[in-house]
Design a protein that fits this description.
The chain is an alpha+beta fold. 39% of the residues lie in helices and 20% in strands. It has 4 helices and 9 strands. The protein has helices at 2-5, 10-80, 148-151, 226-241, and strands at 90-92, 112-114, 120-126, 138-143, 154-161, 188-195, 199-202, 205-208, 215-220. A hairpin with a 2-residue loop joins strand 7 (199-202) and strand 8. Residues 121-220 form the AprE-like beta-barrel domain.
Amino acid sequence: MLERKGFISKEHITIAENSESDQLINLSLTKKELIDIERTISEKKFELEELPLKQFIEKQEIDRILASVNQEIINIESQTESVIVASSSGFININNFDLGSHVEQSTLLLNIVPNTKKFSINLYIPSQSIGFVKNGDIVNIRYSAYPYQKFGIFKAKVISISRTAIPAQEVKSIGTVFHTLDIANEPIYLVKAELEKQYIEVNKIKKALEIGMTLDADILHEKRKLYEWIFEPLITINKNSI
């Protein structure tokens, strides 16, 4: 109408129409971008809401992996070492291994000597001599490290006698038990004796005994008067003849 009345030219109208069209297109694009932005915001909000759960699940998975690794480490260590707790306090007397060396299961590695324990001695008695040994018998001791000619003979008392014999081969690791060949392979009985003294006097100084010291010993049996020993065979014969 304005064009007909001559108020505006056709060119200006065309320009205005094109501008309006461009604005409509831009508005449409802007609305589309707004929709995309709103969708992105919604997705990010959802991700933020899900993040604690995701972190929790990831943490659980990490904890599971760590627990599995720790258990594997424990299993490996248990195959390479063992921890043995002593039943009482004391000191190590024998250290029979080197760090990192391989040892068999039955190998003696060390002895732990309790601080308050009194020493006793192990006597290995051949089967042919065990018959008359009894608790309370007196034992004369001669320590190998201290010649009895100079330091004398020491006393002990039998406190226990094993009821079963030990094969001679099982005690060969401690050295020569018997000096006589005819009894060297005999079964052996273990007799324990309690020492009268826990020390040896060397130049008037009391020297503590050491674990593993070797000795010779004589077990003294019952005491009798001389005439009883003389007449015992006759008494035995007389009893057998009745």
